[in-house]
Amino acid sequence: MFEILEADIVVLQETKIQRKDLRDDMVLVPGWDCYFSLPRVKKGYSGVVIYTRNATCAPIRAEEGITGVLCPPNSSVPFRDLPEERQIGGYPTLEQLSRSNITTEALGSEQEEDSMQPTPDAKIDASTLDSEGRCVILEFPAFVLIGVYCPAYRDESRDSFRLDFLNALDSRVRNLTKMGKSVIVTGDINISKQAIDSAHAIESIRKAVTSAEEFISSPARRVFNQLLSDGVVIGEREEGREDPVLFDVCRKFHPGRTGMYTCWDQKLNARPGNFGSRIDYVLCGLDMQGWFSDANIQEGLMGSDHCPVYVVFKDSVRHLGSETSVRDILNPPGIFKNGERQQEYSGSCILPASGRRLPEFDLDKRISIRDMFSRKPTPSSLKPETGAATMTTTHRTGAERSIPTIDDPHNLPQKVIPVTSKKPQPSPRKRSQPPSVTPFKRSKLDTPITSGASKRGQKTLKGFFKPKGVDDGEYAIPHLASAGSEASHFSSGTSGLSEETQGTSHTDSWGSSDFENDNSNKRQRGERDQSAADASPTADSVVDPIVSKEDWSKLFTKKRVPSCDGHQEPCISLTTKKPGMNHGRLFWICSRPLGPSGGKEKGTQWRCSTFIWASDWNPSPASQQ
What is the count of structural domains for the chain? Predict the structure, then answer.
């Protein structure tokens, strides 16, 4: 991806990823460093990341969030409370935040007491504003880079949050500019600056649904336009926003270009017809207007509903009153001189906020699987103790209910049978089974069982088909008597050898009778089955397989896809997501993309007006063939 973009700084928005889902190929990109802002609460939501190429640039400071109330990694001190040499600065003041609905409880105590009283209508806390992973700020010697993902307009419930975020961004940019720092704001602003930047706005104005003045005067667009030198502001500017501080780089290179959109609705397949909006920008400080040689969009690069926006720096720029190589001021002092590298990139250049500093990606602290298997074995002095513990655990696991714990391995019994001094209580499941099942379990062997466990086997099908003349006692008493410890699992006594024998004799008294009754039932069932098999089938019960196959084929065959009226091409099926009585219903529409007008057209190459509810579509039987 980075080779395709051919960039030195890459800013991505709406990553929609959690920290636990980060992988090596996202963080440990060879030759690149990265800085993440991930949502604190919502999962798979929002997110911003900035990648910097180590060979050409390296930031000197990095922060997350706009207000400065978040804390650096492994620290409990907010960014805004750090010493001046460790902070980027320009944090919104309480007075600036009080213009919106942002509370001031999390902004420290460096302000005046009388100015720390929150406004009566304050609703959003500053930490909440920065908890959605919407901003990463990097400082280079040349400028401060703000990578941002502004909230989009969805419904009225998010209007307040969206406007508060824009106000905080406006305040941070203006404060940094007053400090004498150049600022670059780039990312998904989610605002079309003017009507020329939105196909929806152009169509609405053409149809007189809205006017250009109404479009420009929306609250969020008004805040945004007051930041820009070419922004259109109707009426007087607000206090503190009298002067613009940024300019739109792409619009500067393409002032009258129409259709320069960066986002399209994928659900409507609006990209082929270029019915979209321009909501992604690279905005730079007014003192940087001569720094760039090119700026444009890459509308041909697919893979997202947005397309990249890029700017190209000149090799040398005017900085602090003199011409300077841009690489000299994109790295810490001493790394480059006159555009030539003086020091190699090292681990000391990695900032604490870098993704490479995350514990799970720190290569110095990682233990590979190979290292885990190359450890030295346990010393020989601990071998006897280890062997005894292992043996004890094995006995508990294999025969937990029948063999007690053996502490001394030298006192093990010679045979398995004497080990069980007390028979275990049968499990509830065994206790609940009827006694008639037991004789069948005991009749599974044809030869007497020896005391060795190796000759114990699973019951075979032969045991269910023994001849009737064989003595039942052959399947019970001799086998159980010779089975040793196995007899304890089937006897009804609780302890002692005498009780075990009594339980076995009692079982034999009813086991034989049960066996005969079962054989009698089997004979009766066999006679009924034989008589049913001898009966000849009637003519009505005969089923034609060919007819049956045709009936099933008709039942499971999908309906033919309808063709659109304008092009006679197969339609596509969509589902209604709009709340209401039709929510969840399927419908068919023309498969072609929307045209530049954004509406359904007739007699053109774009989407026609075909619309069919799936429940109403009933093709003729002939068309189904």
Answer: 5
CA-to-CA distance for 325 and 196, rounded, in angstroms? 36
Cα–Cα distance for residue pair 302/4, rounded to 1 Å: 12
- Residue ranges at the known binding site for Mg(2+): 14, 188, 190, 305-306
Domain holding 431, by residue range, is: 421-525
Residue 438, domain member (yes or no): yes
pLDDT for 132 beyond 70 = yes
Comparing 221 with 113, which gets the higher pLDDT? 221
149 in active site: yes
- pLDDT tens digit sequence for 321-359: 899 999 999 999 999 999 999 999 888 889 999 999 998
Confidence (pLDDT) at 519 = 54
Per the annotation, the verdict on 254 as an active-site residue is: no
Catalytic residue from among 35, 91, 149, 281: 149
Identify whether residues 453 and 602 lie together within a single domain: no
pLDDT in tens, 363-416: 766 666 666 676 555 555 444 444 333 333 333 333 344 444 444 444 444 444
* Residue 179, C-beta contacts closer than 8 angstroms, at least 6 positions apart: 89, 90
Residue 404 in domain = yes
Catalytic residue (choose from 8, 125, 130, 306)? 306
Strands (E), 15-86: 32-37, 48-53, 61-64
Can 35 be counted among the known catalytic residues?
no
Active site residue: 130, 188, 197, 280, which one? 188
* 3-state SS class at 217: coil
